[in-house]
Amino acid sequence: MRSRRFALMMMAAVLAMGVLAGARDRFDDWVQATALPRLDIPVGVEVMARDGSLLRAFQVSDGRWRLEPGAVDPLFLDMLVMWEDRRFADHSGIDPVAVLRAGWQALRHGRVVSGGSTLTMQVARLIEEGPTGEWAGKLRQVRLALALERRLTKPVIMDLYLRLAPYGANVEGLRAASLQWFGKEPRRLTPAEAALLVALPQSPERRRPDRFPAAAKSARDRVLARAAQAGLLSEADAQAAMAEPVPRQRRAFPALAPLLAERLRREHPGAGRIETTIDPRLQRRAEELASRAVRGVGRRLSAAMVLADHRNGEILASVGAADWTDGGSAGFVDMTRALRSPGSTLKPFVYGLAFDAGLAHPETLIEDRPTAFGPWQPQNFDRQFRGTVSLRQALVQSLNIPVVKLAEAIGPNRVVQGLERGGIDLRLPGGTPGLALVLGGAGVTLEDLTTGYGALAQGGRGMRLSALPGGAQALPVAMFGPVAAWQVGNVLAGNPAPQGARARPMAYKTGTSYGHRDALAVGFDGAHVGAVWLGRPDGTAVPGAFGGDLSAPVLFDLFDALPPAALPPPPSQTLTLPNSALPLALRRFAPAGEVSRMAARPLAPDRLALTFPPDGAVIETSGPLLARARGGKGPWTFLLNGLPSSVASDRPESLLPDPGPGFAHLTVIDAAGASASATIRLQLPDFTPR
């Protein structure tokens, strides 16, 4: 007690010395020579949602919760100044009136009756973490406070206080305290909340509401009473605020999209604030669904989800684990970025490539029968075969033999290239693509799979997804054309909704990896694309887990949080015909070997042939392309890159629209279903002066 009184007297003496005219110059030099500590107070990294709300905050390196103050309720600031430093706006670091009053009261009563520290002096103590009771410490605080006032503005000093004020345990600063005790930002505080946050820093441990609620309430009510006396509150408002209980437990700091936030922090070292495109409402819904999906299903089960706007590539929700704090289910692993087997979810892209190449149509018939592909004899999931089916049926029923036949005709390398054009980067066993990749024999991330389905929704060319504003990038090359993309989407839209789910306009596909290790569902509507994964991060089996049973209902629940968005109409060039009305070559899929044997036969005089342009020709053109056939039975239909360009022409020649520079594939089909093709290269005329 004696040291406190002596310190107050010393402060008064310093003030008196400062105002003596003969010593003013030396006093100014003494203040000016003060060495300031570092004022760039570190704060935790903040990851923000698209609406500006906090997704997740991180502690500073020493483990303290300290955040940028942000917007502060004016009532709090008024109460703070009223309670701590009424002349804060006018003094130069110390308040002579308060110091003299405090010193006189201490000498008169033998104890401290009122404090003399200004907010600036408190900032001086906090930035140095210096002692509060020793006279030497008080003198240092006085000197530093005077120096701070000369070199900083009042708003900067207030900002330092709002960052550093102690609120107990490892929490510092108003914003961290407001989030901890009230779960809200400090820009809108009730009178009771503001008063408690004013009172706590004076004795942060002995007034902690969770431990000493009576002491916390008493201190808060004293602030409210004085606020009413000062005219900051009406008496009625102060009494109503005093009737409110104080919070009895600390709240957890926000942790929405925790694994995504952690990844973004690692990827942007040094960033204090990271903006994202995450929609907090959709993120909460996705996390609730992930938690619900694994509840009671099995030990160590986890879930992951990605939801994006495929029109601009913005990720709206990202769930990396069902419970990111659960070590038993490897909740620390972000399963949106983990390589997993995609099961049957790659099949739609194989169909799209086949449609785009003119090899098939959704109504083309194909045989689902036991077939050997070299030494490999794949089977359907249920080990049953359906015989003759349309490709539409084969895709909806996720049959294996038909898709492998298509992949063989296209070629595994071209399948991989098509997937990569859609943003799907595969991890191939041994590095060499084989036919098994179309049944899930490759590693894919959930985020890449979502990207690929987003490209499917966008007519074959989509966006590389991103959770950063402006971070999405358009994929440079389409995986296939808009007609093929629409045809695949139209088939997938025919999948029935899971049992109990509300039907909605959505194209989706499920997948189950070998051994029931991964259960997936991926889908899109006219605006959004989403993917759901359930499984065990360690790769062990989940007996009985199927994508259609586990993941598809979750996907539909996720889309129920979105407004319905209709799927697009077919492009104008689309052939929406039954099998019987298709050109003969598209009515039944012919395996590649059969096609090559037919091509090896000598041409009969009246056999259909494409005479111009010849196969392999390089043609300079900047306008319509002339195609001419010979033989066959009219009328003739010409396809350019798999799309009808001239239908039922009465002459075996036609002017086709210029497809632009690059390779082009031409096909002519006659009334009997015979066809002939050529692949050519088009280039612009060379106008270089010679």
From TrEMBL:
Extent of the signal sequence: 1-21
Top-level taxonomy: Bacteria, Pseudomonadati, Pseudomonadota, Alphaproteobacteria, Rhodobacterales
EC number: 2.4.99.28
PANTHER family membership: BINDING PROTEIN TRANSPEPTIDASE, PUTATIVE-RELATED (PTHR32282), PENICILLIN-BINDING PROTEIN 1C (PTHR32282:SF15)
Pathway where it operates: Cell wall biogenesis; peptidoglycan biosynthesis
Family: In the N-terminal section; belongs to the glycosyltransferase 51 family.
Gene this protein is translated from: pbpC
NCBIfam families named among the record's database cross-references: PBP_1c
GO cellular component: outer membrane-bounded periplasmic space
Annotated source species: Paracoccus litorisediminis
Name the record gives this protein: peptidoglycan glycosyltransferase
